[in-house]
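Students often ask what a holo structure prediction actually looks like on paper. The answer is less mysterious than it sounds. You provide the chain, you provide the ligand, and the output is a string of discrete structure tokens encoding the 3D arrangement of the protein together with guanine.
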Amino acid sequence: MTAKIISGREVAEHILENELSKKVEELKGKNIIPNLVVILVGEMKASASYVAQKEKFAAKAGIKSEVRRFNSEISENEILSEIDKINDDSLIHGVIVQLPLPDHISVAKVLNRIHPSKDVDGFTPNNVGKLFLGEDTLVSCTPKGIMQMLRISGTDLNGKNVTVIGRSNIVGKPVSILCQSENATVTMCHSRTKDLNHKLSDADVIIVAVGVPKFISGDQIPEGAVVIDVGIHNIDGKLCGDVDFDSAKEKASAITPVPGGVGPMTVCALIENTIIAAERINSAWEDSNFWPLASEANALSNWATGAKKDSN
Ligand code: GUN
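The corresponding structure tokens follow.
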């Protein structure tokens, strides 16, 4: 069997043309342009490249984006006050802090400071908690992108066995919850799982987010499984994923490539989340039934998005 390639680039373009562009036009009709701020700390090349992709896709979708760059010596308090300013700015709908951060800055503290209504990465405890409870929320981007890819490529998860390899907060854990909510039976594995081959043997879908180059190869994949590869590594100038693509494509029925698979879907989901955040902030304003003086705008926006209540 040679696998069908699930192109994240094509699925992202499809979502952009068929869903996102329309939503952006509707918002523009109400004089609202979704606005994303990305906080980028330090000079890591990979982070700079991911952020550039986010800016490019935002421009294609017709939304605003701004990158606020800081050198790696910035203090934790300075980042926290930057987030406070963004939380209070009613013209900004979404904010992300590109990870990783330098060691002297607590990721948990920084993420906790982002107001949940503007947390378009879906990383705050509030949004993660809602996801786990099955409530409507801003869903973190890579898991959301994976679910969209599965849906658009025609993989129905109802009653299927999904094996997730990797237990990170930003991919493994949330994607397992999303798959369960689509009625899949999920097996969670990780780098220390004993007898991984056995856990993979009845998988219909395998999602690999373990962060080890070519961790999974074709001989571990049951014939006909769908394989989603979240990893991206640069080995001697060549990109590869957590899956050995060449051997895996001979066993899988469908597989995501690296690059061009999950990566573009993560970016697409981020822009979609920014649009959703703008829609929700706007409808909270509309529900308020009056237009405040400019000087009251921030206070009303905080009230409308629940900032006061949630931060007490
Ligand atoms: N670093 C690697 N992936 C991500 C992501 O999805 N969001 C953020 N903020 N940082 C990342």
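The longest strand covers residues 35-41.
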